[in-house]
Each structure stands twice: as structure tokens, then as C-alpha cells.
Amino acid sequence: MGDKTDNDVGVQVALRVVDLQRAVRFYQRLLGQRADAVFGPSGLALFVVDQARTRLLLDREAVSGLVCLPVDDVRRRVEELRAEGIVVEAEPTVVCEVADPVHGKGGGHEWRAFVRDTEGNALGLVSAAAVGG
């Protein structure tokens, strides 16, 4: 992928933000990457989530929504977020079996949890883990 803000992105989703800088800090910690672009005067920030070929747009004018984002390990990430004071709406749970977890061979499970970001948006977190993982 060339410029991460170009048209090589599969999907763009937008989430409403009240405090752009606070939201950017939250998503930088959550995704483990810097924002790809921040347009302070217009109240926009972009993150390209490479795993999902998705561009996440933080926008002061967007409506509140629900987005599910991939993370390395839902259970670990929920504990990290909880320690930072983020509201956990639904604890990590197995939602389905997958044939090929992340880079593994054989079966595994997809895990999902729901949290609230710093702007009040519901956010789903998903990851795959090998059986027993």
C-alpha cells in the first residue's frame, strides 16, 4: 500500500468525536500506531487499519456509531484499557470458531469484547487465538 490515505483502502468508517486530540490519543494507544493524518481546524483524523484495509475517520460532524476493530489479543487489550479507566461494556468472549486463527494452522476461536472510547462511542474489539490460547 502506498500512501495510507489513498484509494487503496477497502472501507472507510467514521466515528463522532467531541475532543479530537483526546480521541487521537485513545486510538493511537488502542491501535498501536500514530494517526496517518490529523486536520485540526476541520476536526478530522485518519487511521488506516492495515489488517482490515479500513480507514477510520474521527470526525466532529459524524454521528455516533459502532465499529469493530482488530487487535492482537482482545483479553490483554481489554485489561490494558480497563487499567486506563476505559469503560468495558462487554467482557471478552468467544463468538465463533475459525479455521485459521491469525497465522496459525488448525482451528481457533474469534474473541470479541465491547468498550466505550473516550468520546462515548461503542467499540468492538476482535482477535483470533488458537484453541487453548
Task: Please describe what this structure looks like.
The protein has a 4-stranded mixed beta sheet, covered by helices on one side. The chain contains 2 helices and 8 strands; from the N terminus they run E-H-E-E-E-E-H-E-E-E. It starts with 10 loop residues before the first strand and ends with a strand. The protein has 133 residues and is of the alpha/beta class. The chain has helices at residues 20-31, 74-83, and strands at 11-16, 37-39, 44-49, 54-59, 66-70, 88-98, 108-116, 122-130. The longest helix is centred in the first third of the chain and has 12 residues, at 20-31. A hairpin with a 4-residue loop joins strand 3 (44-49) and strand 4.
Describe the protein's topology.
Layout: E1 11-16, H1 20-31, E2 37-39, E3 44-49, E4 54-59, E5 66-70, H2 74-83, E6 88-98, E7 108-116, E8 122-130
Parallel strand pairs: 1-4, 5-8
Antiparallel strand pairs: 2-3, 3-4, 6-7, 7-8
